[in-house]
């Protein structure tokens, strides 16, 4: 409880110092499966286990290997969240804790959306292959999606021996799914490996893990309404991608006219920790890379602030361990 109050106080200090009003909202700009009625679980259709066994609640698994088929389900609650109304360049983030012995240099994980709102009320404590929404009966060590209730959205790529955050590719299909399937404010995603392989399984942290900050996340860029309003001032800075991030991330902004630009980074206490840009720049799109090691930034919340003439804009960034 003390930590929660401390974070709130630091947020207020940063908001006052940076002249922001983003902290007046009670909803997060990055959702995790632990938020409101979110959920996560994986199911098995293994020759050794069968289709009725429930997966561990401490981690999530995807696998497609000879005798083992394992599929992960994620549910996000976007109730009254302006970040996802509408969504823009949305993506899923997963914290990989095991990707060893894959046999290949990388593994691709397909992400499907559950298009039938009536099926979003699944219970993670009772989920099995035979009860999972969007799946139909299949031979052991195989799977079958119900085409009328699922839709391919995007993919995640997991390099071999990875430990840390990975992110799905932003796609128009992903944004359309979030914007169209929101009658009950619930979004269910199905993650699976479609190509059989000889490697080991890939595991991710779930919301039940001891480190809740590593629960699966869903993030969308800045809402269009806000972006349009700020673009009138002569500058539009997009949300950094990826976010949250480990190691590096990229900031992009567009200048309507040639102008002097100052781009700086502040910590939660409002102290300036880095100046990324301080020069005259031409009109158009500009990209700036943020390297955590080079800037010597510790994990935590930071704010990137851009000043162009009399206009300014600030975004929040999250550096993970």
UniProtKB/TrEMBL annotation:
It holds the Pfam family CBM96. Keywords: Secreted, Signal. Residues 241-316 form the Secretion system C-terminal sorting domain. It is found in: Secreted. GO terms for cellular component: extracellular region. This is T9SS type A sorting domain-containing protein. The keyword Transferase does not apply. Residues 38-152 form the Carbohydrate-binding module family domain.
